[in-house]
Specification:
Blueprint (H helix, E strand, L loop, with lengths): L1 E3 L6 H7 L9 E3 L4 H9 L15 E5 L2 H10 L10 E6 H8 L17 H7 L12 H21 L7 H21 L13 H17 L5
Parallel strand pairs: 1-2, 3-4
Helix pairs in contact: 4-6, 5-6, 6-7, 6-8, 7-8
Length: 218
C-alpha cells in the first residue's frame, strides 16, 4: 500500500491517516510519483514476456468510487488512459439495490447505515472500526463487500441459477469465507497480517466467478 506524504493535518485527520493497514506494509510516496505507480500496477499485459502485447482490462471497485476517480482527474490522472476498464463497481450504489429497502430512491430506516462499514455489518462481516479509513484496508473491504453482495443477491434467485452458476457461487462463497476466517471478521480479535498471494488468488477467483454470474458490461 502507498501513502502520499502531505502537509501536517489537524489531530483528528492525522490519527485516521496513521491507522495501520491490516493486509500489507505501507510505503510513503510523493504526490508526483502517483501516475508512475498507477502505471506500474494497472498496466497488466496478457503475456508479460511479449513486448507490445495487449493490456488486460481491469475492474475498478470501491465505495462511492466515482468520488475517488474525480479526485484523480483533478490531479490530472485519468485511469482510462492508463489501462482499458472492463467495469467500475460501486459497492455503495449496488448495496442500495441488494439490501433493504432495495432501491436508492426509497428512504432508509433510522438504523440503516450504507457507509462501507455499515454495508459490511449488514452482510455479517465486522472488521474492527479502527481499520476503516485506511486506503489499503478499504480496498480489501470493498472487494469483500462486492462478493458478499453477490452472494446475498444470489440467495434471492437461487432457483434460477444453472448448475454452472451454482458452482461459480460456491467459489465466490469460498473466497469470502476464507478471508473472513483468516482475519476473524466474524468474531472478535481481528488479525493484522499480510494478505499473502494465496489469499489474493482466492479473492481473485471469487471476482472472476462473480463476472460469470453477473457479466460486467462497463
Amino acid at each position: 500500500m502507498y501513502q502520499i506524504e502531505v502537509p501536517p493535518k489537524p489531530k483528528k485527520a492525522a490519527r485516521k491517516q496513521e491507522r495501520p493497514c491490516m493486509f500489507t506494509h505501507t510505503q510513503q510516496i510523493l504526490l508526483e510519483e502517483v501516475p508512475t505507480i498507477l502505471m506500474q500496477h494497472l498496466r497488466i499485459r496478457n503475456n508479460p514476456a511479449r513486448t507490445g502485447d495487449q493490456l488486460q482490462a481491469i475492474i475498478l471497485i470501491g465505495h462511492s468510487i466515482r468520488e475517488d476517480l474525480k479526485i484523480l482527474r483533478l490531479l490530472g490522472i485519468d485511469i482510462s488512459t492508463i489501462s482499458p476498464i472492463l467495469a467500475v463497481l460501486d459497492t455503495h450504489t449496488i448495496s442500495r439495490f441488494v439490501l433493504p429497502p432495495h432501491h436508492p430512491n426509497v428512504p432508509t430506516l433510522p438504523w440503516q447505515d450504507f457507509s462501507l462499514r455499515g454495508v459490511l455489518a449488514q452482510l455479517s462481516c465486522r472488521p474492527p472500526i479502527t481499520a476503516f479509513h485506511n486506503a489499503g484496508n478499504d480496498a480489501v473491504f470493498s472487494l469483500l463487500a462486492i462478493l458478499l453482495l453477490a452472494i446475498r443477491n444470489c440467495a434471492t434467485r437461487k432457483a434460477e441459477l444453472s448448475a454452472r452458476e451454482l458452482v461459480n457461487l460456491c467459489t465466490v462463497k469460498h473466497a469470502v469465507s476464507w478471508i473472513q476466517r483468516q482475519y476473524a471478521f466474524t468474531g472478535t480479535g481481528a488479525q493484522y497480517r499480510n494478505l499473502d498471494s494465496g489469499s489474493l488468488a482466492t479473492l481473485g477467483a471469487g471476482l472472476r466467478e462473480l463476472n460469470l454470474l453477473y457479466p460486467f458490461e462497463g
